[in-house]
Amino acid sequence: MTAVAYEDVLAAAGRISGLVLRTPMVEVSPGLFLKLELLQHSGSFKVRGAFNRMLSAGALPDSGVIAASGGNHGLAVAYAAKALEVRAEIFVPEVTSPVKVAGLAALGADITQTGAIYSDAAEAAAKRAAETGALSVHAYDQPEVVAGQGTTGLEIMEQTGGVDTVVVAVGGGGFAGGITVGTSARSAGEAGAAGAAGAAGPRIVAVEPERIPTLREALRAGRPVPVEVGGVAADALGASQIGGLAFEILSGPRVESVLVSDEAIVAARRTLWERHRLVAEPAGAAAYAALLSGAYTPRAGERVAVVVCGSNTDPATLGNS
User: What are phi and psi of 18, to 5 degrees?
Assistant: First the structure.
């Protein structure tokens, strides 16, 4: 039994209902669905976990909430904090895009930009939380956050009537881990014991940039290990190590790890715009890149849901990286 069970995802769905969007599911060709989490409040799925973490905590401290983020998680925490009328302090690394920093400012967050990559900002945020007593909302490695992200999986199964495969991007792994739990057998309507990460359910294709292979290297080593961080999706998928909770879930038999190049991500991002008029950031296009590049090739008749997970980007960059 993992630290996050199917019941936790169900509870999260009830807790955050009315605060997050039930994002659209579009069947773009027979059996191929796009789950449009890029249309979620704050521009990504991250708001699901942020709300669930805050609401699970009960009364929030006067010092508010604190988070480290490459951008999307910070935007989600700031959005949720504003909705719940509490202070948000967000630490972001230098790699964070100006679009995301501007979004944080617009939401009224107190912003500290420090360090080269996410792990540097996370260290500074942890130190600050210890000083102030603010509630820490981790980007991916807290049970409440993972359960909140898993509500996307519930929606995928409900909106499609069930799929064979879910293709999802991985950074720290909280989203893919949550979806793995949220799409377990019970979410397809099966009765019986509680679903867990290893239960029957659709295959999860976990997609990572070649330059940030946190899950791939953890699976190879048998434990989470640090990797170098770089490439076009580093601001959103730039965790230097897979989360412990995510590794526990994603090392199960339902999960297949694939890698995509920066060039494939850029091409997928452009194709999402040209073919479907979707403005995705590089991380948001990573899962779609797996299909376009052949990193994952569906079988004949396979029903596949691809999660397009983020839109916090400058549309003017769609013609390049």
Answer: 90, -15
Q: Is the pLDDT of residue 219 over 90?
A: yes
**Token pair recorded at residue 8:** 């936790």
The yes or no reply on domain 6-45+142-317 and CATH 3.10.20.30 is no
> In this structure, what are the phi and psi dihedrals at residue 300, rounded to the nearest 5 degrees?
-60, 130
User: What is the predicted pLDDT for the residue at 196?
Assistant: 40
Tell whether the model's pLDDT for residue 227 goes beyond 60.
yes
Give pTM, 2 decimals: 0.91
Q: Determine whether domain 48-136 maps to CATH 3.40.50.970.
A: no
Domain segments of the chain as ranges: 6-45+142-317, 48-136
Of 1, 316, 34, 4, whose CA–CA distance to 179 is shortest?
A: 4
- DSSP symbol at 44: B
User: Which range is least confidently modeled, 34-38, 190-194, 208-212, 304-308?
Assistant: 190-194
pLDDT attached to residue 129: 92
Which amino acid would we find at residue 315?
P
Topology alike, domains 6-45+142-317 and 48-136: yes
Joined tokens for residue 313: 């980007």
Dihedral, CA atoms, 247, 250, 256, 260, nearest 10 degrees?
Answer: -50
- Retrieve residue 311's tokens: 């839109």
Cα separation, 191 vs 197, whole angstroms: 16
Give the strands of the sheet with 88-92, arranged side by side. Answer: 110-113, 88-92, 65-68, 135-136
Give the pLDDT band (50/70/90) at residue 319: low
Residue whose token pair is 């708001």: 47
For the segment 43-69, the average pLDDT, to the nearest whole number, is 94
- 29, 70, 199, 299 from 190: Cα distances, Å: 27, 38, 11, 25
